[in-house]
Design goal:
binds pyridoxal-5'-phosphate, 14 helices, about 400 residues, about 20% strand, seven-stranded mixed sheet, four-stranded mixed sheet, alpha/beta
Length: about 400
């Protein structure tokens, strides 16, 4: 293992990989609860949880114990064999799923969960086209990228992407115009994340379901970022609208890579052996971590706590009425603070003050903290934001 610390470690990390990510110039080496430490021993309040992944915080005792136990029992078990822990995880996940979603395909990441949802929609309908939303983000594999709107991600691959139309998010009339007899699925985030934390207007998700079904198309909700984070299990439950297919990942196993594509029995019935698959999907290690995560969310009142702290944090941010803040949007602990200036320097200012956050588009500071943050943590983040805004 490399012995380098601080700046040397950051440089080595850059030297060994292609320059695909905007680097933050610190090396994170340890975490506990809502706190992270860098290689120089500096402490940070984690208000981003690895892009929304560590929903129970770092080194959560129950998840850690489940990982230890499973690592010393059985790491891998291909889907051609049944697995005790996989079955327990699936039972738990499907017991909290929106109505009608009774089966799941397991994979290893968000984009894989979306890729599977799209493939299943193409197979189930026999139609080629998808309709998605502007500002939407669904991942970078070739199928998920077709649903993703951002030009800079799409343009290098334009020639190989599936047919997709992108309509303004929240505009039912535009969606109605775009969906036709060739549409396999309408694909949406029930709250847009990467695009800037945008909530759907009331009634929009119900309209979307009605429009899709009237045209014989399926509805796919991408809950990869919203899942578990908006004060309830899934963001679509706020609107009481269930999709036909739902993609999950990020927080599902509190940091162990996992993806899940939930579907109706009718869609599952159209899938034949060999149509899709993956070696690591449903591995016992991820299943054990996911089961421990879901049981903790269910048993420890974490979702109710996150709704309460989320309301508090949103209230505190709105109460600032800061001249450099245009709007505060969010639900639960998925929160965007749109600025009247570019967010990059403010993000860096937060980091310098020991608070790690994210951007969502060029103008928005995004908070996706672990669901276990306290009001005191929220206050610390707000104070750091005020200081970083100057
Ligand atoms: C809504 C949404 N869908 C899909 C993805 C892609 O997930 P992954 O990065 O695990 O492939 C993300 C990741 O940020 C996301 O936020």
């Amino acid at each position: 293992m490399s012995q380098a610390t601080g700046a040397a470690l950051v440089q080595r990390d850059k030297d060994l990989q292609p320059p695909l990510y905007a680097k933050r110039d610190i090396a994170l080496v340890r975490g506990a609860g809502v706190t992270l430490w860098d290689s120089d021993g500096r402490e940070y309040l984690d208000m981003m949880s690895n892009y929304g992944v560590n929903i129970l915080g770092h080194a959560h005792p129950r998840v850690t114990a489940a990982i230890h136990h499973q690592a010393s029992t059985l790491l891998n078990c291909h889907q051609s064999f049944a697995s005790d822990v996989r079955v327990a995880f699936l039972d738990k996940l499907l017991s909290v799923a929106p109505e009608g979603l009774t089966q799941a395909f397991l994979s290893n990441s968000g984009t894989e969960a979306m890729e599977a949802a799209l493939k299943f929609a193409w197979v189930a309908t026999g139609r080629p086209k998808i309709v998605a939303a502007r500002r939407g983000y669904h991942g970078r594999t070739i199928g998920a990228l077709a649903a993703t709107a951002e030009k800079k991600y799409r343009d290098p691959f334009a020639g190989v992407l599936a047919e997709a139309a992108h309509v303004p998010y929240g505009d039912s009339d535009a969606l109605f115009e775009a969906v036709d007899g060739q549409t396999a699925a309408v694909v949406l985030e029930p709250i847009q994340g990467e695009g800037g934390v945008h909530l759907p207007p009331p009634g929009y998700l119900a309209d979307v379901r009605q429009i899709a079904h009237a045209a014989g198309a399926l509805l796919i909700f991408d809950e990869i970022q919203t899942g578990f984070r908006t004060g309830t299990w899934f963001a679509c439950l706020h609107e009481s609208v269930a999709p036909d297919l739902m993609a999950l990942s990020k927080g599902l196993a509190n940091g162990v890579p996992v993806g899940a594509t939930l579907m109706t029995a009718a869609i599952a019935g159209t899938l034949e052996g060999g149509v899709h698959g993956t070696t690591f999907g449903g591995n016992p290690l991820a299943a054990a971590a996911a089961l421990a995560t879901l049981e903790t969310l269910d048993g420890d009142g974490v979702l109710a706590h996150s709704a309460e702290v989320g309301d508090y944090l949103i209230g505190q941010l709105r109460g600032l009425e800061h001249p450099r803040i245009r709007e505060v949007r969010g639900r639960g602990l998925m929160i965007g603070v749109e600025l009247k200036q570019r967010a990059t320097s403010v993000l860096r200012g937060l980091q310098e003050r020991g608070v790690l956050a994210l951007m969502a588009g060029p103008l928005t500071i995004r908070f996706l903290p672990p669901l276990i943050i306290t009001r005191a943590d929220a206050d610390r983040a707000v104070a750091a934001l005020v200081a970083a805004l100057g």
